[in-house]
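Writing this down once: the sequence line spells out the residues, with the fold written below as integer tokens. I am pasting one below:
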Amino acid sequence: MRLAADPLTGAVPVPHPATVRRLLARLDGDVLDEAIGAFLAARARQPEHAVGKRPALRAIAVDGKTLRGSRHAGRAAVALLAAMEHTGAVLAQRQIADKSNEIPAFAPLLNTVDLTGLGPVRSRDQRLG
């Protein structure tokens, strides 16, 4: 989307929020997420090597969250499952089906993540009271 600069001031106008909202509503969320994730992953800092030539192990956390403000009349709230490195980089995320939980979406989510250098897999559901 290229906008022409104002001929008098040289300022480039910002699209109206409604225009951006309509554009984003038409996009496939999973494809957009993959494209942005690949862009950020290509620019992410690689983990430092440990002793010798063996690379440092990576840690990935997977958690689900319900998006605040996404519940509307006749429509359930949007729930997402995300995989994130401990460096803060989100590796992948998927929307969880309505009336479901995180378990069925876990394997498809990890299928989109490069698990090279990942240590032993451990599962831990931590509930803070």
